[in-house]
Amino acid sequence: MSPLPPPLPPMVALLALLGAAPLAAAEMSEAVWHRALISQAQLDAAATSERFQVADEILCAALANAAPWCQLLTHEGTTCVLYDVVVDSLDDAAADAATTCRTRHRNVCIVEGEPLPHGAMLVHNCLPALCWNRAIVPAVTEVWVGVKSRMWLDNRDVASGEWGPNDPNGAPDECARMLMENGKYTLADKGCSATFIFLCMRPS
């Protein structure tokens, strides 16, 4: 009579019972799950969620690693729930946040529900921007716009309120660029031979 095979380690056995292939150790630790707080309303807004019964939070994290769509997990008692909700562990929790969770994300910008890592470039309000410490900041400070000789390209005069506090102060035939000052964009004239990126508009 052949000897019985050795018993499976508890973690592998449980994953097998759940219908998941046993995960290599590297796969089980591939993501760092950061602690955060979340409200029930945020969890209820998930487009995708999946529930399992597992004893340990580490097993819940292993299941989350195997689900690429999973952005967040909760584990309470023996109930593990995976969600596609994106939150940043460093952001201030909502006033009604009472559920402890773990999220994949730390120090990211969340744009239309998608996480962008620190240092990522994006287009925000038609201009190049940068995700920096969870904030979207302008990547440039001077941008050419359609102004020449103090008129817009559609032949409208530039309104006085569109100029910065000390502009226009150059030659009458200069072009204009847009500057960000004190959180507000204003126009400043500049010789047309200068080099900046430019902002343009096209018919929809």
UniProtKB/TrEMBL annotation:
Transmembrane segments annotated in the record for this chain? none
Q: Which InterPro entries does UniProt cross-reference here?
A: C-type_lectin-like/link_sf, CTDL_fold
Q: Which UniProt keywords apply?
A: Signal
Q: Where is the signal peptide?
A: 1-26
The name under which this protein is listed is C-type lectin domain-containing protein
Record the organism: Scylla paramamosain
